[in-house]
Predict the structure of DUF402 domain-containing protein.
Amino acid sequence: MVDLHPIKRETFDLGTMTNTDPKGFLRPVDRFDLAPWGLYMARGANHPRFGYLESWLLPEWNLRANIFHFRPGYESSQRLYIDVAAISHEGQRWYTRDLYVDLVSHSDGRALDVLDLDELAAATSAGLIDSAEAQVALETTVQAVAGSARHGEDPQAWLEAQGVKLTWASNVALMPAEE
């Protein structure tokens, strides 16, 4: 059964150094960096499986690239978790509207996993997303998968070939998990 849900929205407020997550929780942000291609965010996470989150919002590519720093016992071959998303900004605030499709790259060089196409189809059918946004989601997915395939199954290398230099923290401190 498909998990039919409204579009997940987030706000990234550079002025208050906060991220309002899809559930409406206001999260303090450790760092925002602006680059010509997008916005970098780093913050702690009290999730049971991961304790830190880094994200790059890339509006021109309709992508949000994430690294989840997993807790001991939850290690994974996952390198990047990429949300296909509509991204906009106005002044000090950036906004994302998750377009349902997710891509996962792996540190072992496997092909990208494409997730939640069924959610995109169900949301389109239910009128939660219009056909134009569904088309953007599908075209973005095809571009990212094809581009990554041309660069050794590495979406970061594909983006770098287009002038996008994603940088990540070399060390992070995991936030304690919420009980």
